[in-house]
Amino acid sequence: MSEGEAVIEDVVARWHRYMRGDLTGGLEELLADDVVFYSPVVYTPQRGKEITVRYLEAAAGSLSGTDLAGGGFTYTKQVLSGDTAVLEFETSVQGKYVNGVDIIRCDDTGRIVEFRVMMRPLQAIQAVHEEMGRRLAAVAGGHHSDG
Questions:
Q1: Band (53; pLDDT cuts 50, 70, 90)
Q2: 113-122 contacts, C-beta under 8 A, 24 or more apart
Q3: What is the pLDDT of residues 75-134, one digit of tens each?
Q4: Domains (ranges, CATH) in the chain?
Q5: CB count, 10 Å around CB of 30?
Q6: Strand bridging mode 31-38 / 112-120
């Protein structure tokens, strides 16, 4: 195993702890200051730790799968290579099945420098977009833009 692969393994382990609510330092501990977040529902890449924290927290809440249809958020596959991890997930939002991947790239210090989320099918993306919009608007005091 290369040094980069050991680093991404540690980052992914810490990401899983964050998703379970067990990471003491939260996202602040995981993200590089200049992290770039690519959302499936916003055209423009979001740059910087502060905005990335807001989007990832909204996404985690939106994708938790605690709606009436059940089907909580679950990672189903994981592929690690070099400084990058691809984590496939399944959940439901507003009763819609959601399948997607988180693509996470880290630096040598174990901080996430790029976080990309891709999802399918289209109706799931629309449901997630609506749910994230509500959550981001609540955090921003009612100001939300789709980029």
A1: very high
A2: 113/32, 113/34, 113/35, 113/36, 114/35, 114/36, 114/37, 114/38, 115/31, 115/35, 115/36, 115/37, 115/38, 115/52, 115/56, 116/37, 116/38, 117/38, 117/39, 117/40, 117/59, 118/40, 119/40, 121/97
A3: 999 999 999 999 999 998 888 899 999 999 999 999 999 999 999 999 999 988 888 888
A4: 3-139 (3.10.450.50)
A5: 24
A6: parallel
Q: What is the largest CA-CA distance in the chain?
A: 47
- Provide the pLDDT for residue 20: 85
122-139 tens-digit pLDDT: 999 998 888 888 888 887
Please tell me the pTM assigned to this model: 0.85
8 Å CB contact between 128 and 41: yes
